[in-house]
Amino acid sequence: MFYEAFLETIYLTIVPLVFACVFGFIIGTLIFIGTSGILERKSGLMTFISKVCDSLVNILRSIPYLILIVWMLPITAFLTGSVIGTKAAIPALVVSATPFFARMVTIAFSEVDHGVIEASRAMGAGTFDIIIKVLIPESLPALVSSITVTAINLVSYSAMAGAIGAGGLGFEAYQYGLARRNEELMFIATILIVIIVFAIQIIGDRLVRKFDKRGG
Q1: For 168, left (φ over 0), alpha (ψ -120 to 50), or beta?
Q2: Does an H or E element contain 185, and which?
Q3: Rounded to the nearest 5°, which phi and psi values hold at 112?
Q4: What is the sign of the dihedral through the CA atoms of 7, 9, 14 and 15?
Q5: Which residues, 6 or more positions from 115, have their beta carbon under 8 angstroms from its beta carbon?
Q6: Of the chain's two ends, which shows fewer C-beta atoms within 10 Å, N or C?
Q7: Dihedral sign from CA coordinates of 6, 145, 35, 39
Q8: Calpha distance 69→190 (Å, rounded)
Q9: For 165, left (φ over 0), alpha (ψ -120 to 50), or beta?
Q10: Tens of pLDDT, residue by residue, the chain (216 residues)
Q11: How many CA atoms lie within 13 A of 64 on its CB side?
Q12: Which of 32, 16, 11 is nearest to 134 (CA)?
């Protein structure tokens, strides 16, 4: 029982993380390039898109996760054909994690030395080149750290989703632990969740040290 729930929790973390990182990176990049002045030429359309993305991120980040799950039930049913189960939890997890990671991407890019960006611009680099050859390499440790924090948040969200039938260790802890007053089972499920979080943090920290140029 715990083995299957453990695998479901890993699934509920990795799959949404991949989508959240892809969508969040795109949105975060759009926000940054529209507000940082790195565009080759001023674009009213890009500024508008950046402001829309920024507002969308702020709105979605302010919605509590459990409320977001309820609001997304029609979309979830359309995409997955169900409102309960492991797959049904994916859309809400992606929507909750994407704006968080997008904001982290914007912050990571903002910490890049503007002088490096200007030097690249002076050497003829375009906006795309600056993103690929300057922003990503220079902010890689921060981006990896952001992915780590996002993954840990997803573990927490997946546990909450489990309380409403999404499966995973959260479901085991609630359905068979809390609801049936089985404290031992609830304790084991909690310990397994903590182990997952620690493993993610350890892996993330090692990757950050690996990519950090200042770490030697």
Answers
A1: left
A2: helix 183-211
A3: -70, 135
A4: positive
A5: none
A6: C
A7: negative
A8: 22
A9: left
A10: 678 888 988 999 999 999 999 999 999 999 998 877 676 556 677 888 888 999 999 999 998 888 888 888 888 888 888 878 788 889 999 999 999 999 999 999 998 888 888 888 788 777 788 888 889 999 999 999 999 999 999 998 888 877 677 777 877 777 766 667 777 878 888 888 899 999 999 999 999 998 887 654
A11: 4
A12: 32
Please check whether residue 165 is in contact with residue 124, taking contact to mean a CB–CB distance below 8 angstroms: no
Q: How many CB atoms lie within 10 A of CB 87?
A: 17
pTM: 0.88
Rounded-to-integer distance, Cα 167 and Cα 90, Å: 11
Phi, psi (rounded to 5 degrees) for 185: -65, -45
- Neighbouring CB atoms inside 10 A of 66's CB total 14
Burial class (CB in 10 A: 0-12, 13-18, 19+), 113: exposed
Taking 3-state DSSP, the helix, strand and coil percentages for the chain, each rounded to the nearest 5, stand at 85, 0, 15
